């Protein structure tokens, strides 16, 4: 299970690099932070149950943040011109 967190770290690092190259520096920093979180977590040697709990908490935080963004911060009708 710890290897899957390294895989998540790899893909978040790839996305962070893409965001950086696309001049989206804020989102790039967010994904670099997630990369560090996943890679550091993978070396803690937790039990498989604990890894599942951490991933569930991560998904819950993502869902709440994404829902808040789409309901309250996203401009109505798409991107502003």
Task: Please give the number of β-strands.
Answer: 0
How would you state the average pLDDT, rounded?
92
**Largest beta sheet, briefly?**
none
Distinct helical segment count = 3
Described by the principal axes of the CA atoms, the overall outline is: flat
Transmembrane segments: 5-21, 27-44, 51-69
Pfam families: DUF2626
Keywords: Membrane, Transmembrane, Transmembrane helix
InterPro entries: DUF2626
Q: Explain this structure to me?
A:
The structure is a single chain. The chain is flat. It contains three helices and no strands. By secondary structure, it is mostly helical.
Structure summarized in a few sentences:
InterPro entries: DUF2626 (IPR020254). This protein has 81 residues and is mainly α. It has helices at residues 2-21, 25-42, 48-73.
List keywords for this structure.
81 residues; mainly alpha; 3 helices; membrane; transmembrane
Strand and helix map with partners:
Elements: H1 2-21, H2 25-42, H3 48-73
């Amino acid at each position: 299970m710890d290897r899957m967190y390294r895989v998540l770290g790899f893909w978040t690092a790839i996305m962070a690099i893409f965001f950086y190259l696309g001049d989206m520096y804020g989102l790039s920093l967010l994904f670099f932070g997630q990369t560090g979180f996943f890679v550091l977590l993978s070396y803690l040697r937790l039990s498989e149950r604990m890894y599942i709990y951490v991933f569930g908490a991560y998904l819950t935080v993502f869902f709440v943040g994404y829902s808040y963004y789409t309901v309250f911060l996203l401009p109505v009708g798409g991107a502003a011109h």
